[in-house]
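Lab notebook, page 48
Experiment: co-folding of the full assembly
Goal: obtain a model of how the components sit together before planning crosslinking
Operator: M.T.
Materials (sequences as entered):
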Amino acid sequence: MTTVAMTVNGKAVSVDSEDRALLVEVLREKLNLTGTHVGCDTSQCGACVVLVDGVAVKSCTMLAAQADGSTVETIESLAKNGELHPMQVAFNENHGLQCGFCTPGMIMTAVDMVRRRGKTLDDTTIRHELEGNICRCTGYVNIVKAIKAGAARM
Amino acid sequence: MAKDGIGASVLRKEDRRFTTGQGTYTDDVNRPGQLHAVFVRSPHAHATIKSVDLTAARAMPGVVAIHTGEELAEGGINNLICGWGITSKDGTPMKMGPYPPLAIGKVRFVGQPVLAVVAESRGQAEDAAHAVEVDYDILPSVTRLADALNPDAPAVHHFEADGAVWEHGQPPKNLIFDWELGDAKATDQAFAKAKHVVKIDVVNNRTVPSAMEARAVVAEYASAGEHFTLWNTTQNPHLLRVVLSAFINVAPEHKLRIIAPDVGGGFGSKIFTYSEEVVCLWSAKATGRPVKWASSRSEAFLTDAHGRDHITTAEMAFDENHKMLGLKVDTIANLGAYMSLFASLIPTYLYGPLLSGQYAIPAIHCNVRAVYTNTVPVDAVRGAGRPEATYVLERLIETAARELGVDRAELRRKNFVRTFPYQTPVLWQYDSGDYDGLLDSVLAKADWNGFPARKAESAKRGKLRGIGLSCYIEACGVAPSSAVGGALGCGVGMWEMAEIKVNPVGTVEVFVGTLGHGQGHETTYAQIAADRFGIPIDSISVIEGDTDKVQQGMGSYGSRTAGNGTSAVSKALDKVEAKAKKIAAHLLEASEDDIKIEDGNFVIAGTDKKLTLTEVALAAYAFHKLPTDIEPGLDEKAYFDPVNLTYPAGAFVCEVEVDPATGTTEIVNFTAVDDFGNVINPMIVEGQVHGGVIHGIGQALLEEVVYDPDSGQLMTGSYNDYCMPRADNLPTNFELAFQVTPSPSNPLGVKGCGEAGAIGAPPAIINAITDAIGTNDLQMPATAEKVWRALQGVSAKNAA
Ligand code: FES
Ligand code: FES
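Observation: model returned without errors.
Model output:
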C-alpha cells in the first residue's frame, strides 16, 4: 500500500492504493471520477488521457504512485460552474462523438494539443496529433472538425 | 413542423453527459459489497482438460469462490445457444457443438473461459487466477478456414457418425451446414447459354468488432425476492433476458431485470449472449454478493465474436450485350469453435439474398458451407453478411468490366433494377430505389470523367492513381416475423415496441425497445415526438435499456432501429394523438375530425379556440370533465412488425494514390451517395456514414485477425498487432450526399444507415487499388506489403 497525495481537479486528495495501482484505477475506483475511461491494456487507445501537471498523459500508463505530489485534471474539471469548455461545446456542435466512450480522452488530448500547437490547427496537424487516440464510431471526420473549431474558440 | 422535428440536424441531447465525463457505462457501475470475477481462459487452441487443482488458488487472500463448468451444469445451467436454425440442402439440421459457459472436459479456442475466480478485489482475483493449476493434454488444432475441410484436419467437435456422404466428396468433419439458396438448375442453364463467363476468388478477411468500450457485467441477487439485476454492455437487453432465462436457465424471466446503461459502441459484438453474463449471475446468487467483471482489451480480442472470414469463388454469366444472365457463388464461412447467438444467420440469410445487389440477374445460385475451427466464435460485425456479399459482387463486376473491356459504370447501369417492387431470385423483394440516380450523382460529384487528367498528374509525381466504384444494396430489419420465424429458422420475432407517456404536465416520455449505443437515439426519437406535437425537444425524454421500464423490445443491430424503432414510436404516437384529439374535442365541444395540431396546440380548425398539450394531458389525468367512454390517462403502447425489410442503397467512388516504391495507399478522394429514404436527422446520419466508411477502410487496408497455424495462438491480440484505423487514415477529401427514395414499408419512409459505409467501402477501395496497380490479384487487407508484392508480380509478368 502507498499513500498518494495529489491535487485532483483543484482539490487536495490523499488516497491509499495498492503499489501496483495505475493512476486511472485510482481516479476511477477511489475518487469515483469515472469520466476517464479504459479502452485498452497496451497504451494505444487514449480513452484514459488526463492532464498531469498540465501535460497530457495516458493515465493507464502511469502508476498512481508516480503522480504523488502532482496536479491532475480530468474531463470532469473542464466545465466551470455549469458552463462548458469551448472544446466540449465544439464536440457537441460538430457531432464529434457518437457512443461517447473515446470522447473524454479526445477532448483532453485536444486541450493539450491547443496548448502545444496553438489555436490555429489545420486538418493534417490534428489528424497526426490524434495518432494515440482511437475512435471506432465517428470515423474521426467530425472529431477533426470539432477540434479545429474548439481550438479557435479557446 | 417543429424546429426540432423530422429532417432537422438537431444537436444531440445526450452529448452533455458524454462531453463532461458523466456518462454511465457498465464498468462505471459499482454496487455495495461487490466482488470481482476474473476468468481463467484456455491458453491452448484445442486441448483436453486432464485435471484442475484449485488448492493453492482457494487459499489466496480475498478469494470467495471459484466456479467450474461442472458446478454450473449440476446447478441446471444450460449451454449457450445459437438462435437461428439453418437446414442443410440434404434436409439435415445444422450441427451445433455444445458450448458450456465454462469449459467441461475440453477447450476449443484460445481464450475460452474455463474457470471463474471471484475475490474481494480485481487484483486478488487476478493473483488467484494465476495460482489455478489446469493440466491440459494439447490436441492438434485447425484455425485457418481453408484447412477446416481437409480430410486430415482435426475435428473441432465430434458428432455421432451419420454416415452421410457429403457431395463435395469429403467427410462432413467440421462442416456445420451445407446450405444453398436460389435455383441451381436455372443458373446452370443460364451459364450454358452465356457468351462470357467471369470468375474470381476472393477472401473476406476476418476482423474484430472492437467497440471502444469493452464488454462488462455487474450482477446482483436479492435473496428475499429471489430477484436478479444485471447491468450489461448489451445491444438488446430484452432478447438477452429471454435467452438467459428460457434457454440458459440462470434466472427466471420475471425475476431478472437487465439494465444496459450507456453502451460504448457495439458493432454487433454486444448482441450475443456470452459466458461472462451467465457466470456472474450464477456467482451473485452463489456468493450472495454483487459480482463484477470488466473485460480487458486483450480479453476482448480473445472473446468478442469476430466477423467476416469467408473464402469465395464466384462466377457471372453475361450475354453478348453484356446483360447479366446468372451468378454462381460458392462460399466457405468460418464460424469459429462454437456457434454464437446469430452465427448461422450471417453467412446465410444476411448474405445469399444480398447477392443480387442493384442488378436484375435472372438466375442466382449460392452455396455456403459453414465450418468449425479452433478460433473465437464468429458472428455479426457491422454489416454482417452484407459486406461479404457486396464485396463478392462488386469485385466480380469490376473484374468483368476489365475482362470485357467495357466501362465499369456502364456495365453496372446496363443491368440495374428499375421497376419496383422487384423480386430477386434470392428471396428478398426490393420495395424502392433509384440506382441510376445514385450512380449519376456519384459520378458527377467524384468528377469521374476528369480522372484521366488526375491520373496523369499523379504519374508526373511518380504515383499510381486508381479509381474504383461500388454500388451496394443493404437489407435492414429482417421481416416479417411470420416469414423469418417459419421457413427461415429465426427463433424470435423481429418486431419492435414503443410506449409514449404524456405526463400530466405535458412533458413526454418515449419508451422504446431498441438500444442506442452511439447512434443518437435520444435525439432522433425525440425529434419524431417533437414533430408530432409541435413541442420543444427538451420536454421529451427517451428511455431505452431497462427491462423494468421498457416493457418489451428486440434491440438495435442490423440497422433495424430506423425502420422498426421509429415505426413503433410513430404508431404509439398515432394512438396518443387520437386519444388527445378525442379529449380536446370533448373539452372544446367540437368534433374530433375538426381538431388539428398546430404549434403545440390542439385547435379547432379555422378558429382560435385551442388547448395546449399540457391542458389536454392534465384533463386526461385529473379526469374531472371527461365522459366515461374515455379512459383516464394519456399513454399508449404499440408494436410494429414490418411487412418487408428496407433496402437502403448507395454508390461510392474511391480514388487512391499508390506509391510504387513502398506499396503505400493513400485514399485521396472518397465520394458516397446514399439513399436511406427519409432522413430524420441528417447530421447523425452523416456521422453514421463517416463511421461506416472508415470501418470499411479499416477492413480494406489495415485490419486482419491472424492465428498462428501451428499453435493456434491469436497473433493479433492487441492494438499493437491489430491495426485499427486512426485519424490519419481518413480520405484526404471525403464527400457525402443523400438521395431520398422513401421506403413504402414503414410509416416514416426511412431505411436505416448504420452499416452502409462498412458494406460499400471495401470493394470501392480495392477496385481503386487494383485499377491503380493493374492487377486483380489482391486480397484484403491491402497493406503496403501486399500491394508492393502485387506490383512486383505485375512487373515480373510485363518483363516475361
Ligand atoms: S486505456 Fe490508456 S491508452 Fe488505452
Ligand atoms: S464515439 Fe464511440 S469510440 Fe469514439
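Interpretation: Residues 147 and 309 of chain B are 13 Å apart (CA to CA).
Next step: discuss with group before ordering constructs.
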